[in-house]
Amino acid sequence: MPDEGKYCTICGGAAPAGPGIRTVMVDGKATGIDRFDEILEEVLALGLAREDEIRDALLTRVKAFNYVPTKKTDAYAEALMAEYRAAAARSR
User: Fold this and answer.
1) CA-to-CA distance for 13 and 6, rounded, in angstroms?
2) Do the Cβ atoms of 4 and 35 come closer than 8 Å?
């Protein structure tokens, strides 16, 4: 049987460790987000100015590769925006 990858035993999503997966604190819990560094670079390159546009761009891209529970969307958005702000500050 081929290796199908490592998945979280709780939610079934990508395990919070491995190549391309970055751990982000979402609602006080360490959460693995697949391809997050790539997503950050892509959204930073868009040069968006409005926070709502940045939030939507981040969430859309994160949801393409990761399960985001509907009830936790706002918590994910806050965590993603915090990471975005830190990355934007570093790139200045």
Assistant:
1) 9
2) no
Looking at the domain assignment, is residue 51 inside a domain?
yes
Domain contains 67: yes
Two tokens at 3?
């290796």
12 vs 79, more confident: 79
Question: Tens digits of per-residue pLDDT, 17-51?
Answer: 556 899 999 999 999 999 999 999 999 999 999 99
Taking a C-beta distance cutoff of 8 angstroms, is the pair 15, 67 a contact? no
Identify the pLDDT of residue 92: 79
The domain total for the chain is 1
CB 69 within 8 A of CB 77: no
Q: Judge whether 88 and 40 are in contact, CB under 8 Å.
A: no
